[in-house]
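Below is a concrete protein record.
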Amino acid sequence: MPKYYPKEVDLDSDDYLMFILADGRGLEHNGDLLDFSILLKDDRGESASVGMGEVNRLLLPLPVQFTKLVFWEEETYKYPAESIFQTFRIPLSKFLENNSQFRLDLLKEIRLVFDQVDSGEIILDDLGFELN
């Protein structure tokens, strides 16, 4: 998979981390919402994190029916579900509140840390920054 690096991006506390995310567990969620942390790390080893629960909740997949024939539905799709894609905007200032030593200008790494639940599955798309 190719990696794309911009030549230069000046991030500051007025900017946002943005991404599109969906719960990918299908109907195997037992009503439990997924929660995890978003961790930013700089070149000096400093890190700052924000819990998804602090920002917004990730909606559960919805049950769907693809056909009118119940026996065909159960045989073919088992437990069909539709993932709900949501756009998230997290102010970078929220990360700085958690660690004032973290430097946005030295950002090296973005991690999703699954430290809030035992198991889960997500679908992630369009990770980037909104610059102001």
In short: The first helix runs from residue 52 to 55. The CA atoms of residues 30 and 60 lie 10 Å apart. Residues 16-130 form one domain. The radius of gyration is 18 Å.
